């Protein structure tokens, strides 16, 4: 009887975990894994926006409301709502101040170029013509799905996007995600979870060896 009670308690205990400093590819795999429930993540990617030589941080997350945890409102472009952070596509939200800086409204587009990639291009292209061509080829477009208004200055200055394969394509490679957390879906599968985390860590190291820019 005591053993059965212990086993029942083990199955019913909620096991929460964190996965820190994984690549976006690993994070996308985690978000699809049947081993993890209530998955949440966020990170920051440095970009050049609209060709400006200004290193701007884009926050990537799968749950904007949870990340901000402050009062805010969003004016969405037609066809968009808060589900964009769990969907696909190269789309983003801009804080009101950021939208003013870049001169955009809902439904417009912004160009993005990973700052690390820009530095590589400047080192590998000797003249301005080849550099300009390389920059144009590496630049991607994000649709502005909406504008955020908040009393918080950091939110009004922010740019926010989803973590998905389209974001990886815009970045040109997987990018680091600082933080994620989850609930283990089945306590009997703790060993499987450990294997998944270890396998993804090994994959991230291989990506780094092959030239992907990770911490």
Structure description:
It is a single chain. This protein has about 220 residues and is of the alpha+beta class. About 40% of the residues lie in helices and about 30% in strands. The protein contains 9 helices and 9 strands. Strands 2-3-8-5-7-6 form a 6-stranded mixed β-barrel, surrounded by 5 helices. Residues about 210-215 have low confidence and may be disordered.
Set down the secondary structure blueprint.
Elements: H1 2-12, E1 16-23, H2 24-32, E2 36-49, E3 55-61, H3 64-68, E4 72-76, E5 91-95, H4 96-102, E6 109-114, H5 115-124, H6 128-138, E7 140-150, H7 153-156, E8 159-161, H8 165-171, E9 176-184, H9 190-209
Parallel strand pairs: 3-8, 5-7
Antiparallel strand pairs: 1-9, 2-3, 2-6, 2-9, 4-7, 5-8, 6-7
Helix pairs in contact: 5-6
Task: Give short descriptive properties of this protein.
215 residues; alpha+beta; 6-stranded mixed β-barrel; 9 helices; 9 strands; 32% strand; disordered C terminus
* Class per helix and strand makeup: alpha+beta
Strand order of the largest sheet: 2-3-8-5-7-6
Q: What share of the residues lie within helices?
A: 25-40%
H and E string: HEHEEHEEHEHHEHEHEH
Largest sheet geometry: 6 strands, mixed, barrel
If you compute it from the alpha carbons, what radius of gyration comes out, rounded to the nearest whole angstrom? Answer: 20 Å
- Tell how many strands the DSSP assignment holds: 9
Number of helical stretches of at least 4 residues: 9
What portion of the residues fall into strands of 2 or more residues? 25-35%
How far apart lie the N and C ends? 50 Å
Shape: globular
Mean of residue pLDDT values? 88
Which parts are unreliable, with pLDDT below 50 for 5 consecutive residues or more?
A: 209-215
